[in-house]
């Protein structure tokens, strides 16, 4: 019985990972950027002039990971850095016209299918899911725990 349930749970993980990977491939082929870059681009467009620290917090990723993603978007000229008018010491981020064009042609949802699905779940179901996943994570190699601070598209 336990072996059968474990196999069924594994199938569910495969379905989830497969759907996420398929969505990321569609993003890359349509937009020419990774799913995590698209998510960050959308977050910058939604919240203009946010700094890297706040963006990292909004996306639940490590600040250094966010900085690297921002630099890739700047290099591709999809985002530009600009000193904020109220505090010249702070740098805000703005989406360029090319960045807006990328967002316009992006497959939906731009923040990824898994975050969107999780956001639609009932609170009790999310609590149960979180507890079950914590149990699974606790049985994995401790080296993998740092992966929680990276976007799924970059894993």
TrEMBL record:
PANTHER family, sorted: TRANSCRIPTIONAL REGULATOR, MARR, TRANSCRIPTIONAL REPRESSOR OF EMRAB OPERON
Domain of life: Bacteria
Membrane-crossing segments per the record: none
Domain HTH marR-type: from-to ranges: 2-142
Protein name as it appears in the record: MarR family winged helix-turn-helix transcriptional regulator
Keyword line: DNA-binding, Transcription, Transcription regulation
Pfam families noted in UniProt: MarR (PF01047)
């Amino acid at each position: 019985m336990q072996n059968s349930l474990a196999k069924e749970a594994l199938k569910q993980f495969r379905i989830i990972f497969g759907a996420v990977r398929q969505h990321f491939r569609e993003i890359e082929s349509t937009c020419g950027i990774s799913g995590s870059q698209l998510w960050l681009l959308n977050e910058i467009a939604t919240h203009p002039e946010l700094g890297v620290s706040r963006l990292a917090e909004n996306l639940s990723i490590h600040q250094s990971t966010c900085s690297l993603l921002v630099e890739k978007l700047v290099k591709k000229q999809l985002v530009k850095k600009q000193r904020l008018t109220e505090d010249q010491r702070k740098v805000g981020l703005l989406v360029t016209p090319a960045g807006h064009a990328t967002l316009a042609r992006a497959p939906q949802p731009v923040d990824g299918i898994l975050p969107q699905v999780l956001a639609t779940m009932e609170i009790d179901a999310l609590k149960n899911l979180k507890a079950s996943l914590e149990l699974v994570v606790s049985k994995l190699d401790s080296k993998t725990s740092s992966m929680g601070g990276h976007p799924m598209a970059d894993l």
